[in-house]
Amino acid sequence: MTLELSLNQQPAHTRQGSSIGQPLTRRDGFLKVTGAARYAADNHPSGMLYAVLAVSSIARGRVAALDVEAAKAHKGVVEVMTPRNRPALAADPDAKDHPFMFRLDLLQNEEVRYPNQTIAVVIAETLEAATEGAALLSPRYEALPARVGLDDAESFVPRGVGVGNPAVQHKGDVEAGLKSAKTRIEATYETPAQYHNAMEPHAIVAAWDGDKLSIDTPSQGLAMAQGRISGLFGIAPQNIHIRSPFLGGGFGSKGMISGPQVLGVLAARLVGRPVKLVLRREQMYGPVGHRAPTRQTLRMGMDGEGRLTAIHHHAKTASSTFDDFFEPAADASHTLYASPAITTSHEAVRLDTGTPLFMRAPGEATGSIALESAIDEAAHACGMDPLEFRLRNYAEVEPMTGKPFSSKALRECYSQAAKAFGWASRPLQPRLMRDADGFLTGWGVGTATFPAIMFQAEARAVLKADGSGLMETGAQDMGQGAWTAFAQIAADGLGLDIDQVDFRAGSSDLPNAGIAGGSGHTATAGMAIHNAGAAVIARLADLATGNEASPLFGADNEGVVARGGRLYRRDDENRSESYAEILTRAGLTEIEGHGKGAPDAASQETYAKHAHGAVFAEVKVDPDFGQIRVTRLVGAFAAGRVINPRLVRSQYYGGMIWGVSFALHEEAITDRRSGRIQNANLAEYHVPVNADVPSVEAILIHEDDPYVNALGIKGVGEIGIIGTAGAVANAVWHATGVRPRRFPIRIEDLLG
Amino acid sequence: MRDFSYFRASSLDAARQAAALPGTMLLAGGTTLIDLAKCGVAEPDTLVDITHLKGLDRIDVNERGATIGALAKMGHIADHADIKSRFPAISEALWQAASAQIRNMATIGGNLMQRTRCPYFRGPANFSACNKREPGSGCSAIGGVTRGHAVLGTSEACIAMYPGDLATALVAFDATVHLGERKLLVDDFFLLPGSTPDREHAIEPGEMITSIEIPSSAAAHRSTYLKIRDRQSYEFAAASAAVGIEFEADGRTIRDLRVALGGVATKPWRARAVEEALKGKVLEPETVRAASRLAVEGAVDHGANHYKIELAPRVVARAILKLGETA
User: How many domains does chain B have?
Assistant: First the structure.
């Protein structure tokens, strides 16, 4: 089965030349604004039941009793799934075969490891009955004291941080560098726990047919989800069909299948009917990953010219008591500023929370806000303009490894954004600018880097005798516009107009497109699409150039160009033939080609590959109230080739606004006695509203990078959040003279 | 689901009679009630829908004052031309409250019945102790997360903050709430928690808010509502002030002053000490700032909400001085 998406219902786009580079609007926009786009929870297979999670109200201990009878007696309740009757699994959910297999809470026992952990699942004829059934379970607990703060447990040095980086890394002699420095700074910054709040909470509709499993669920990694479910249930991956045409945001939380999603599959198995399970907003605060809190200390030394002599970036963070994910915050100092000596180090504690996982720019976002604040402090200590200081310490090679950059247009980012912002008139000292209404005004800058990562992907391309094309890859659109950007790459790869290409994605029965994460999806799946297109065009060219009846006869593969549904001889464009003519003559209804996307190992060894950016922020602070408002944000980003400038700009805007959120709004506030998060709802877990973001500008800096991949794509998904938070914090300092050391920055921090 | 009866009232009397029965709650815009039902705080047996009652959504403004029907929507009142010109603080309090979507649904009667955002009050599944929910069960907030809790009007039984904006402005201008036969000053309608925090309003079974009356005054005419918060919109006040001022003929000496605080107290908080200290005085920044400190006389903090004690007087002073500038 493939997805039937009417992606061509929108008006035709105006466009010249190739599809890549055009600012097309989202091809699925029409479906979304008319409500026709079907998200996972919109599915209602016949006979479907509703499952609702009952979750723990304690942080640590065990469930001593559940009133299952009361829940089952409630009208409409069909079954209550607990550790006693949960269907058997083929694999232990606590097994960890590799570092990226994260432990899941699937009712394996009565132990409670964090608040909001599932303790039972109530399955009923209606959502309301299941909800009331869950309340009627009235759990009784044996509770143990909760450990929720960075000082609540013994710290240790993790074996690895992030995706397996060493927890401690050195280059040069930091202590000697600090000793020789003319100026030194040392500062500690704290960032809070942040929780995923994608508009669409995790949802699943699962239906079993014997040993075959049909699933609708949002996923950033269809093949990984399929593999994980295959392992847990002991069925072949090809027996599991996952559809994920649309995600209402992912941001890392839907990268790996979460416990609640698997519980939906278990519930369907238990009752032998299709089951829908949708998390309530507050249930997002635990089982689907989060950004762990950090406490970061930076020590820096500078010589008489303001050149860094040493950077030591130390981060303390937290993981859960039962699994390992350590926010690699200090690693932000590996790539940004030149220094003869750099040490990055991490320590961690284990807390009674869900396992922290990937959240947009994990490590880079948290590390950047501390690093960019400290760089600002260092610039001030040297009496230098913060931008001048950053340029003085500009890294011509990757600081930690000494590798040359595959491309780095950061200077251009700085200069264009600074010019657009008007940075040149900034006074060096803080608290010198006021606007006409008396607000303290401040300007700050932050730098962004994010690695240009690629994973593995495959795609299948087909050309048909009617002259149209088909491109298939199991790619995932989280809302960022992948349906559109990939179709643009497909159109160019097939040498067709975009409206002649049927692009299919978002389903696990399509070729594995890898994960939509690490800002690597466009590059990875895009290269698979590009290569699949090239493969099928090569076959087509063979058919034409090898046939005497073709005007292209005699031209070898390199001798033809595919464009607008025709092959042309490169040396004589008057000689051409349409795809339809070539296939019809060959008596073929269609031909296909396959392509892969993967990082190039050789260039990986040689080059450091990163996207870069610079963000400038203006804030206004009420001098009496400490009320902060961001009034302007200007960012410039260089991230290789831009497939669709409209979508890329939108990614930058979203990232920059999240940066404002990081600096000023987002924070999970925990009751230290119970370990419970007290603002697990969108009324009190704050993100910026429109009124908080009056002016955002994103400048796209041209960058050709022949080394990252043949398409020259670096990825734009995460870099926007990096740099912005630091820029806002630095602007707050410039406005007030108060250096923010704890995030988010609140009224009380500036009341004086 | 948890069953309840739904009854659409055809007349005011029918609504009142139904509301007199235990376990019955009135349903208007639903923005508070449905929210409280979802978090398990409100568990009505019967809902009496009053949204179809005629004539309860009128907004009448004349020389004597404004009379606003209980079913008038927050958004309509905020945008009403005569309210904006004669009672600017009322309009400003309303449009700075909640979100546009909520203001288009929520009624003014329901707004007065809005309950605290204390997460312990709102989390019965997780915190069994709450004197407001279960008298005598204790207070989970004391010793917990308190950044948003009250510093004024608290008791040992409860420190929950009254979150509304409108009632703060109503209290400043001596508005009354009509409960059918009876009418009360809005200031008297809201009760201090004392030892009975479960009882928040002086409303009896069988009574229903029918309208609100705001008397005209020179102070209401020259008034403002200043709301300070971390986020620009859709956030409850860190501290707010409804202020109205009337000057003597010299344009500098304060004849009448009204000050009420929001976001800092267990009920809408009239700051009479500030008013008395400044009446008859010439409006000078230093005098105003000093007097504004009286707004938080007797304030008690619980750690994280200490900043409100510092912030609230500054908000009061700014609001008074701002009104003075327009003299």
Answer: 2
* Alpha-carbon B39 to chain mean position: 22
pLDDT at A711: 96
Within its chain, how far is the Cα of B73 from the centroid? 15
| pLDDT digit string, tens, across residues A345-387 | 999 999 999 999 999 999 999 999 999 999 999 999 999 999 9
Q: What is the pLDDT of residues B205-251, one digit of tens each?
A: 999 999 999 999 999 999 999 999 999 999 999 999 999 999 999 99
- List the CATH code of the domain at A44-144+197-284: 3.30.365.10
Mean pLDDT of B123-132: 95
Closest by Cβ to B230, choosing from A624, A691, A747: A747
Inter-chain residue contact B311 with A751, CB threshold 8 Å: yes
Q: Which chain A residues have a beta carbon less than 8 Å from that of B314?
A: 624-625
Chain B environment of A748 (Cβ under 8 Å): 306-307, 311
Q: Structural domain boundaries of chain A?
A: 44-144+197-284, 145-193+290-400, 403-453+605-752, 455-598
Contact B126 A747 (CB under 8 A): no
Return the axis-axis angle of helices A645-664 and A724-736, rounded to nearest 10°: 50
ipTM of the complex as predicted: 0.96
Query: Rounded to 5 degrees, what angle do the CA atoms A263, A269, A273 make?
Result: 110
Q: How many CB pairs under 8 A join A and B?
A: 81
Query: What order of strands is seen across the sheet that includes strand A501-504?
Result: A501-504, A469-472, A457-464, A590-597
What is the spatial distance between Cα B170 and Cα B157, in angstroms, rounded to a whole number?
26
Mean pLDDT per 10-residue interval, chain A, length 752 residues? 48 55 94 95 98 98 98 98 98 93 97 98 98 96 97 97 96 98 98 98 98 98 97 98 97 97 98 98 97 98 98 98 98 98 98 97 97 98 98 98 98 98 98 97 98 97 98 96 97 95 97 96 98 96 94 83 93 93 97 97 93 98 98 98 96 97 98 96 95 94 95 96 97 98 97 87
| Residue A118: count of CB within 10 angstroms of its CB | 21
Chain A residue closest in CA terms to B143: A673
Q: Identify the helix (H) or strand (E) that includes residue B46.
A: strand B46-49
Q: Which residues of B touch A629 (CB under 8 A)?
A: 232
CA separation for the pair A88, A98 (Å, rounded):
22
> Which residue has 């670096």 as its token pair?
A714
> Can you tell me whether residue A637 is helix, strand or coil?
strand
Q: What is d(CA A670, CA B80) in angstroms, rounded to the nearest whole number?
A: 42
* Domain assignment present for B242: yes
Q: Which domain holds residue B20?
A: 5-49
The per-residue DSSP string of B112-162 comes to HT-----TTTT-TTT---BTTTSTTS-BSSTTS--TTS-SBS--SS--PPP
A748–B307 C-beta distance less than 8 A: yes
Amino acid sitting at position A167? A
Residues from chain A that touch B121, judged by Cβ atoms under 8 A, are none
Q: State how far residue B47 is from chain A, nearest Cα, in angstroms.
A: 17
- B143 is a domain residue: no
Distance from CA of B3 to the nearest CA of A (A): 10
Contact B40 A674 (CB under 8 A): no
**Conformation bin of residue A491: beta by default, left when phi > 0, alpha when psi is -120 to 50:** alpha
Selected for mutation to probe chain B from A285, A661, A747, A750 (highest B CB count within 10 Å) is A747
Q: Edge-to-edge strands of the sheet including A203-209?
A: A77-81, A118-124, A49-55, A275-278, A203-209, A212-216, A240-243
Cβ of B126 and A676 within 8 Å? yes
Whole-number Å distance between alpha carbons of A309 and A174: 8
Domain A145-193+290-400 carries which CATH code? 3.30.365.10
Per-residue model confidence as pLDDT tens digits over A143-172 = 999 999 999 999 999 999 999 999 999 999
